[in-house]
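As noted in the main text, all predictions were made from sequence alone. Below is one such record, for Hydrogenase maturation factor HypA.
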Amino acid sequence: MHEYSLACEIMNNVLSIAQENNAKEINSITVGVGRLAHVNPDQLMFCIESLCEDNVATGAEIILNEIYPEMQCQCGYLGEGKQFCTVGDEIIDDIRAFLEVPCPECEKMMHASGGRDLIIESIDIEQ
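Prediction:
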């Protein structure tokens, strides 16, 4: 479970930033998780919440934001990957949503760009 090591790295950075800013408490931590980052958001959330115990982040709200790739085609079409996560009434909630996706303009297969990020977007602290 590599989510634990990722959560440890995130929390080390969060606690370091909190210490540099003389934080008495961390209210919330917002993390952007790319849909193509090969990270299970539920496991990451559990690990971060576990690491928030017994420090200035105790009780902090953990917010995970999905980062979608941009879909690009040779014909010049650009579209946000989120729009390709549904086929008819079916919601595709995994990497399949971004593989072998035909361009709505020319029907050629598109390429996913981005969406591999794992980034601390914000930390709300009390000083």
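Residues 70-113 form one domain. Strands lie at 25-34, 61-67, 70-72, 78-80, 86-87, 90-91, 111-113, 118-126. These features were considered when defining construct boundaries for the mutagenesis experiments described in Section 2.9.
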